[in-house]
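cron nightly-structures :: item 1 of 1
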Amino acid sequence: MADVGQELLNVPFPEMVVKLASAIAEGQYQLDLVSCEIAKLMSTNKVTLPSLTEADGEYETTMLGAGFQPTFYQFTDTIIEVKMAISMSKTTEKSVSASAKAKFGCFSASVNASYSSKYSYSVEGSSLLRTKITPVPPNSFLQNYLDLKSELMQKEIKELMGKTEEALNNEEGVA
């Protein structure tokens, strides 16, 4: 009979850990790519905001110019839990016959309900893989880049507002 302790050691736990870590690394890479793509879209896609100087006027800027930033995510907590129950028993059948011949042979059987009940074989197992993803700020390089881009766009807004106010003042002076 095989040792139950050995059966537990046969669980490919190191392989599960490596595969999970690789999946997390690949997932993190994909999450970062998506966040960078969203940052690009936010720097090119225009949004329309109401004008601060004209009652029915509008101002067009990008989402970054309006102060939005992409969200980045990071895997922060991962758990692998494996539960297993193994029980085995062995039955031996002996018979005595009139002939003195000994017979040897191999026997294999799929484990099904009949086999399990005849030989008292049972295995139970369950596993759980759980990971947690949380939002995090962009790295310092990208954060500085986004801040500079936002500042440049806000400077454009101020210049445009100054020109609008100047035009309004000129109209009032003419009237």
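cron nightly-structures :: done
The radius of gyration is 35 Å.
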